[in-house]
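Q: What residues go here?
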């Protein structure tokens, strides 16, 4: 049977993104803070990981099955070039950075997870500018395979 996660898949991915140098934890110095759930008003350059639908794969007749957790990354930047550079950087990392997104251990407090892989579901979707601020936004949808290790 699939093991229950104590942390959200979005939070696991946030820690993996920070470990890969693709963002920083909120309230620290550096660019592209990675939040979970709710997008902060500031700064302009931000990544927000949101849990979304996943999918269930094969069933083995033993109660075990493959489970793919869905996460949507919402990117926001003050201009389109900055947005597209970051979107492409993330997509490339998920496709090629085996050191950070393929069979790596992610630790959140006392809990550890094996992040088996991150699979992109799309190339990124431009969402246009925000109404209030005109900052540019896009989303990138991924599936994660995660196994608790303790």
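A:
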């Amino acid at each position: 049977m699939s093991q229950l996660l104590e942390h959200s898949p979005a939070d696991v991915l946030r820690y993996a993104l920070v470990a890969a140098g693709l963002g920083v934890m909120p309230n620290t110095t550096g660019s592209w803070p990675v939040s979970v759930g709710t997008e902060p008003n500031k700064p302009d350059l931000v990544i927000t990981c949101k849990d979304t639908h996943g999918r269930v794969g094969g069933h083995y007749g033993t109660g075990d099955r493959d489970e793919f957790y869905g996460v949507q990354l919402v990117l926001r930047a003050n201009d389109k070039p900055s947005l597209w550079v970051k979107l492409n950087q993330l997509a490339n990392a998920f496709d090629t950075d085996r050191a950070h997104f393929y069979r790596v251990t992610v630790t959140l407090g006392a809990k550890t997870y094996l992040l088996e892989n991150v699979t992109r579901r799309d190339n990124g979707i431009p969402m246009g500018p925000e109404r209030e601020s005109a900052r540019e936004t896009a989303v990138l949808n991924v599936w994660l395979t995660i196994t608790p290790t303790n």
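A: Context that may help when evaluating the design: The two ends are 16 Å apart (CA to CA). The mean pLDDT is 93.
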